[in-house]
Amino acid sequence: MVTHPIMSWLNAWNQLMAGFFLLCSFGLIAAAQVTGCMRFYVLQSLFLACSAALLGMLDNSTDLFMVAGIYIIAKVILIPVLLKRTAREAMIARRELVQVIGVPSSLLIALGLTLVAYYIALPLTAGANSGTRIGLPIGLAAVFIAAYTITVRREALPQMLSLLAIENGAFFAGDAIAPHFPLIGELAAVFDVLMIVLVLGVLSTQVHRSLGNTTVGSLAQLGED
Amino acid sequence: MPRMIAYNLLQVAVVLLASPLAVGVLNRLKERVQSKQGSSIFQVYRDIWKLFHKDQIISDQSTWIFRFTPYLIFAAPILVTLLIPVLTSYPLFFAFMGDMLGAGFVLALGGFFAALAAVDTGNPYGAMGASRTRMVGFLAEPVFMVVFFTVCFVANSTIPYIVQQTWVHPKSNFFDPSHVLIVIAFFMLVLAETGKIPVDNPSGHFELAMIDESKSLEYSGAGAALVKWGGCMKFFVLLCVLLNVLIAPWGLASGTGIGDVAWAIPLVLLKILAAILAITVVESSLAKLRLFRITAFLGLALVVAVAAMLARMMRI
User: Fold this and answer.
1) CA-angle at B37, arms to B33 and B39, nearest 5°
2) Total number of domains constituting chain B
3) Which residues in chain A are contacts of B174 at CB distance < 8 A?
4) Out of A117, A124, B115, B183, which residue is the most buried by the measure of CB atoms under 10 Å away?
5) Mean pLDDT score, B161-188
6) With an 8 Å Cβ cutoff, are A16 and B307 in contact?
7) Could you count the other beta carbons within 10 Å of the beta carbon of residue B63?
8) For residues A32 and A97, is the Cβ–Cβ distance under 8 A?
9) B47-89 pLDDT, tens per residue?
10) Closest chain B residue to A122, measured at CA
């Protein structure tokens, strides 16, 4: 296989996008307000789309370009707009979020999870091309970190955004492993996610209206009235 | 050989003379962003000049540490300047005297004595500021270490002149994730180490909230001038490490002629101006963090640095 000089540039950019993608997962843990979480989620989706486009250039697949377009439309534009529409009150609340474990320790735990993801992916990616070698561990790490974020966050909206970030991680790894995945599958998954966002947004608004906040822990007790 | 020594001394002269200007420009830009007139960009020179002509008052309760520290704070960045590339992209006479770790240690020595001197006079604010600086320093230490490890890992050397060439040979190395992430982590470190806004407010005059400034509250006259000048030089030197060693050796002289080196001076100052613009944006758009949120800020820097190392590991 002849490697064009442009390939090394594309590879470097793809790796860079992967690095930023991972950083956004950490940002989701560290963000102090709901809007911050939202920004990191949108940024992460943007890097996901860039990575898909770069992989499309590396693999010569037009499918991946379309996938990148779908990501931009659905994750970078539609999901934030939908969330702002449906869960307005919880979204604009400018107070600090509570976490079960503090931010610095959470970041360290997330670092540990990244290492775990790396060592899990190491034997699987032996002999694979560079896109897979980068994509699988980073995607796995993003899934782990987002799952961890769900467990430490106490409020519904950040948890929801972490759920969406899990899905981002899965897509990131998926694009790298299976670049020729049928487009219809991606489309279906993305529209599923949009529906989920809509339902969860409405639900969390209802909770917010009846309780005044969306702290999930306090939903364990039954109200008297 | 004499020419290399001369260039090395020229570097020191540039750092000595241009560093107050860098701080002055930063202050002026920040004031302009806040829609104020702002003081002249040469105000820092005037302050230093004024302080040199004032009487020095030293508490008779203090020891030699208090008198000795201003000289050390002033000398440490000069020593570091001898080691790092400020104007040239080829090693100069003193380049192999120490590596980036050595430079880090020299700067840390200055910081250590500054903290000691702050405690020395018995002024409560000094001790408070010193302990806070130590806290920030202790949190920044792991980030420094991981950045150095990663640099070692990538460039197989910690001599700054060798490190800077690694990022541009081949050119696609510039977009290597470990490179970009190291730069981000080090930028966060520079903000923390020089007392910029997410960590400390450099223009605050409230002693209880000070971190960096309160250490030099007790100094007057020439001592205060040296401490102030030393602080400017430390800022300048850290920016040089960030821009010339960790980002790329662009704009540095590659020829040994006197014209090449002289032409590098405005280019380097232009790079410094770009970095100052970035710092102005950060300082004007963020609020100062509460003391206990600084751990989160530097924790994030650590995460970025470790991510840089991981990115390097994954590539192999």
Assistant:
1) 105
2) 1
3) 12
4) A117
5) 87
6) no
7) 12
8) yes
9) 999 999 999 998 888 899 999 999 999 999 999 999 999 998 8
10) B314
Mean of per-residue pLDDT scores for chain B: 89
- CA B305 to CA B309: how far, in whole Å? 7
Q: What's the CA gap between A43 and A39, in Å, rounded?
A: 6
Per-domain boundaries in chain A: 7-211
CB contact under 8 Å between B299 and A108, yes or no, is: yes
Measured CA to CA, the distance from residue A35 to residue A28 in angstroms comes to 10
What chain A residue is nearest to B300 in terms of C-alpha separation?
Answer: A107
Q: How far is CA A166 from CA A75, A99, A155, A172, A179, in A?
A: 13, 19, 17, 10, 19
Taking an 8 Å cut-off on Cβ atoms, the answer to whether A18 and B308 are in contact is no
Chain A CB within 8 Å of residue B305 CB: no
pLDDT average, residue stretch B159-164 = 88
Question: Which site among B172, B286, B316 would you substitute to test the A interface, given the most A Cβ atoms closer than 10 Å to its Cβ?
Answer: B172
The phi, psi pair for A155, rounded to 5°, reads -115, 160
Q: Under DSSP, is residue A47 helix (H, G, I), strand (E, B) or coil?
A: helix
Residue numbers of the domain that contains B117:
2-315
Q: Which of A30, A111, A134 sits opposite B314 (nearest CB)?
A: A134
Residues 6+ apart with CB under 8 A from A190: A70, A71, A74, A75
Of A12, A115, A134, the CB nearest to B175: A12
| pLDDT tens per residue, range B23-55 | 999 999 999 999 998 889 999 999 999 999 999
Read off the tokens for A43.
């940024």
Name the closest residue on chain A to residue B177, using Cα atoms: A16
The whole model's pTM is what? 0.89
Which residues in chain B are closer than 8 Å to A149, comparing Cβ atoms? Answer: none
pLDDT of residue A1: 46
pLDDT tier at B272, thresholds 50, 70, 90 = very high
